[in-house]
Amino acid sequence: METKDKELHRIAITAIIYNNKKKYLITRRSLSKKAFPGKWTVPGGGLETDDYTNTPPTHKGDQWYNAVETALRREVKEEVNLQIGKPQYLLDLTFIRPDGIPVLVLSYYCPLISGEMKLDEDSIDYKWVTAKEAENYDLIDGILEEIKMVEEILKR
């Protein structure tokens, strides 16, 4: 698939959130979503310039640390109204959307800290599941494998 600018990517970040019972949060996408309608996934979304340009620079000039973590925390708060602990990097994934835009997805895992679950308009349901229970849901490709990776990491 051809892309217009080989250096530009949309950056998306996902969070595999686990609770103190070692269950993982999955959410079901709205049936009206263009991509993966009705599929189960984990919270996340896109990095926006507002995630850093609206904060004081970390260094002289226009440089900011932790923009990805800031965006991930914002997305989790917007989508499910939860506070998360320190995100840990899991893996990255790239693909080209049907509209030709290349996407870089950064997948993280993190503990639930607090919050009362409240879904935004992009999701229609949620469940806390074990990795084994997640096998029974129509997840976006790759999400089950990522949950299983996190489960192995947490066992260590």
Please describe the topology of this protein.
Blueprint: E1 10-18, E2 24-29, E3 40-41, E4 44-46, H1 50-53, H2 67-80, E5 83-84, E6 88-96, E7 102-114, E8 123-129, H3 131-134, H4 143-155
Parallel strand pairs: 1-7
Antiparallel strand pairs: 1-4, 2-3, 2-8, 5-7, 6-7
What does this 3D model show about the protein?
This protein has 156 residues and is an alpha+beta fold. The mean pLDDT is 92. The protein has a single domain, classed as Nucleoside Triphosphate Pyrophosphohydrolase (Alpha-Beta Complex), CATH 3.90.79. Helices cover 22% and strands 33% of the residues. The N and C termini lie far apart (40 Å). The longest helix has 14 residues. The strands form two sheets. Strands 1, 4, 5, 6 and 7 form a five-stranded mixed beta sheet that branches. A three-stranded antiparallel beta sheet has the order 3-2-8.
Which key terms come to mind for this protein?
33% strand, alpha+beta, 156 residues, Nucleoside Triphosphate Pyrophosphohydrolase, 8 strands
Q: What is the fourth-level CATH superfamily?
A: Nucleoside Triphosphate Pyrophosphohydrolase
CATH C-level class is Alpha Beta
**How much helicity do the residues have?**
10-25%
Mean pLDDT: 92
Number of domains: 1
Class by SSE composition: alpha+beta
- Count of extended strands: 8
Could you say what the CATH topology is called? Nucleoside Triphosphate Pyrophosphohydrolase
Q: At CATH's second level, what is the architecture?
A: Alpha-Beta Complex
